[in-house]
Amino acid sequence: YDELAAFDPDIAGVLLSELERLRGGLQLIASENMSSPAVLTALGSTLSNKYAEGYPGRRYYGGCSEVDKAENLAIERCKDLFDADHANVQPHSGASANQAVYGAFLSPGDTILGMALPMGGHLTHGTKVSFSGKWFNAVHYGVDKRSEDIDYDQVAELAREHKPKVILAGGSAIPRLIDFEFFRNLADEIGAIFWVDAAHFIGLVAGKAIPSPVPYADVVTFTTHKVLRGPRSGALVCKAEHAAKLDKAVFPMMQGGPQMHTIAAKAVNFKECATPEYAAYVNAVIANAQALAAGLDAHGIRPTTGGTDTHLSLHDLQAVGVTGADAEARADAAGIVLNKNAIPFDPAKPNVASGIRVGTPSVTTQGMGPEQMKTIADLIATAVTKGDADPDNAVSKEVRAQVHELVGQFPAYPR
Ligand code: PLP
């Protein structure tokens, strides 16, 4: 750090002020976490310098003996962690891992069946603004109006009608467990590939807190930086029969040189995930998410589906008469970072939205428990229903002071 500070005080200042931002507020973005100093050390290493196109033992560059060791460790640890036939740890991100699935199994114009973005899916699941919706014919299912959980009848109907080549389960705002067996049987019935995008919940699977999609799916893609708590990146695991196809789709079809520093950091993270401490952590993440959802519910900020089985909950703000956008801005002014989110059948535009999404990976990493979740729910409710987007507003100031007091007891990256 000293060398950086001497040469580039501007960027050194950003690094420090970001750390202060993390320490000074409540981080409730469901897709974020705080990776360990061990992971960050591997990320900031000389492995970043190395070109290593290809795979271990089959590189297009010399000098790969050391990075081969890192990638082999990452692959073996990933396979062990998820009990998978094959792992590819090179995708640069969740979106890159998803591209590889399209590359391996689909040609432009082919049909895919996935969850609609406004119902909880992801951009890369066939939305019009993404390559996936521009180049492929995406058919989308949603959630049931009453249960607000995946509408399995609709999934089956659409699959039988459209005969997609690939059926996709997973998304960014699904609070409940997914019935993988249902999807597997349906894919078998119509002769489709079954793909799970487990970006959000793979960490819970790694800690054995929820059922794994790996025995059911042909391929499982994921990010490594959400509950999993690794570096910002992606990976995939698959059945042996698809290994060669998916490897070729990652490189050379979709990517160039792998980021060897990030792959080393993924290896560190997979080792962390195999520990009893990590298993305890993910169980605490879920208990906290349930406590936070119940706490908000008590203030009339209703969790969709009635609660959560995972690390996140989605809340409907219509009963308290606040938009998602206003809630996000008011919480932010009070030192609480969360995001506005469309709720199922949302009457509002996506950039306004009627809901918020909250998640507990970061606050659980900081050591907070259900008691703190109740306090956080109270603080969110006050900020959202009585506060203002102006940080100088009296309510913003008062809530922010309480947030500071709370995070002071559970510091992020303790000194
Ligand atoms: N898939 C899902 C379900 C996600 O939630 C996300 C990101 O939030 C992605 C894919 C994309 O991951 P990345 O941002 O690493 O490209």
From TrEMBL:
Keyword Signal carried by entry: no
Keyword terms: Amino-acid biosynthesis, Cytoplasm, Methyltransferase, One-carbon metabolism, Pyridoxal phosphate, Transferase
HAMAP family in UniProt: SHMT
Pathway: Amino-acid biosynthesis; glycine biosynthesis; glycine from L-serine: step 1/1; One-carbon metabolism; tetrahydrofolate interconversion
Subcellular location: Cytoplasm
GO biological process assignments: glycine biosynthetic process from serine; methylation; tetrahydrofolate interconversion
Binding site for (6S)-5,6,7,8-tetrahydrofolate: 117, 121-123, 241
Enzyme Commission numbers on file: 2.1.2.1
Cofactor(s), names only, from the UniProt record: pyridoxal 5'-phosphate
Superkingdom per UniProt: Bacteria
Native organism: Branchiibius hedensis
Gene, per the UniProt record: glyA
UniProt name for this protein: Serine hydroxymethyltransferase
Residues recorded with modification N6-(pyridoxal phosphate)lysine: 226
Residues under site feature: Plays an important role in substrate specificity: 225
